[in-house]
Amino acid sequence: MPSIPHIGSLPAGKRNAITDVPGVAVGHRTLDDHGVQTGVTVVRPHGGDPFRDKVPAAAVVLNGFGKSVGLVQVEELGVLETPIALTNTFSVGTVATAQIRSCVAANPESGRSLPTVNPLVFECNDGFLNDIQRLAVTEADYLQALAGAGADFEQGSVGAGRGMSSFQLKGGIGSASRRVPARHGGVHTVGALVLANYGRLPQLVLAGQAVGGHLATQLASHGAAPEPEKGSIIMLVATDAPLDARQLRRLALRAGAGLARTGSVFGHGSGDIALAFSTAYTVPDRVERPMPAMAMLHDGLLDEIFQAAADSTEQAIVHALWHATAVTGRDGHHRPALSELLPLSSFHSSFAGSRSSS
Q: Residue 358's pLDDT is what?
């Protein structure tokens, strides 16, 4: 297997992950038991209570074939007030309930003297590998993923990505980051995390190399039939640049550029959603607490931030495929890993000379 190609010209952060953005943490709970191949992934925007200290955010829906919870209020108010949870389609309700219980435990007056909480759960359908009708994910699984969140985390066939498929290969969790010079010194960091469960193999492009047709031929030789586009992808973009909700919506939209570079056309059956948030400041829950006095980044300085969002999203998708391991799940359904097929491809030598990601 060649080294992982580096997307774009901007440098990566220390971990090349969304957790290079200060304060962001990621945790997984993976369920791996024969026909049950699923899990939960949690992204914490900071180490405190987001119900008390909300995070500016915005989302865009590139194609709305999805069953997420919480997007309406995010669109209206422009803030997050829970960690972000990723799971399978049929577990959205359970995970949302877990988020509500977690908030009530920390804030007993939520829903009484305090406002109700807006849970935020994104999903993809892992039903090919996972017996999704088992409703295997529990509230305790969410809490375990939340408690285990940290700066270092696994990628590939883990957490919510355990049962996900991408381009008829094993998909899952991927993450990356890029660093952007700030105008008056220092740097801004942009990080992405994806739950990749989308794509038609003949269309796959990796770091500008159209490898999909060759890989599709390899799979076909082993009896795999072509499949329609019917998956989804969730793209999360974090930054420490001071942006408001309007600017964050523009940033989230640029994740779609990174997605498109991999060969996606946002197919009919695909739920393609991006959310961006900033850790530069928080919004207090009570009117008695002072609002932050923060100078937002000028719109004229956003181009490299946009580039970082597109590049880190594309890199995160590459990482999801690169780090995924093969999984056999429900009824013997199997997804091979990219690592099993790419060394056999004629494009192997093309990647061997690529700049490695750091």
A: 42
Predicted pLDDT at 224: 75
DSSP state of 54: E
Q: Beta strand pairing status for 84-88 and 121-124? A: parallel
Is 142:29 a contact under the CB 8 Å cutoff? Answer: yes
Average pLDDT, the chain: 94
What values do phi and psi take at 348, rounded to 5?
-55, -45
Which two tokens mark 26?
Answer: 């990621």
Provide the pLDDT confidence category of residue 351 given band limits of 50, 70 and 90: low
- The CA-to-CA distance between both ends of the chain, in Å, stands at 17
The two three-digit tokens of residue 60, written as one number: 């865009």
Distance, CA of 200 to CA of 153 (rounded, Å): 28
Q: 206 - beta bridge partners?
A: 209
β-partners of residue 41 are 28, 86
CA 70 to chain centre: 16
Q: Please, what sign has the CA dihedral across residues 68, 73, 77, 82?
A: negative
d(CA 271, CA 281): 30
Residue numbers annotated as active site: 232, 270, 272
Enumerate domains of the chain plus CATH numbers.
18-286+296-350 (3.60.70.12)
- For the cut 70, the answer to whether the pLDDT of residue 182 exceeds it is yes
229 vs 126, higher pLDDT? 126
Q: Where are the beta strands (DSSP E) in the chain?
A: 25-33, 36-44, 53-64, 79-80, 84-88, 121-124, 165-166, 169-170, 172-181, 187-197, 232-239, 271-278, 283-284, 327-328, 334-335
User: Containing H/E element for 338?
Assistant: helix 338-341
**CB-CB contact of 171 with 321 (8 Å):** yes
Q: Are 236 and 194 spatial neighbours (Cβ–Cβ below 8 Å)?
A: yes
Q: Please, are residues 199 and 237 in contact by the beta-carbon 8 Å criterion?
A: no
Q: d(Cα 56, Cα 114) in Å, to the nearest integer? A: 20
**Cβ atoms within 10 A of the Cβ of 318, count?**
25
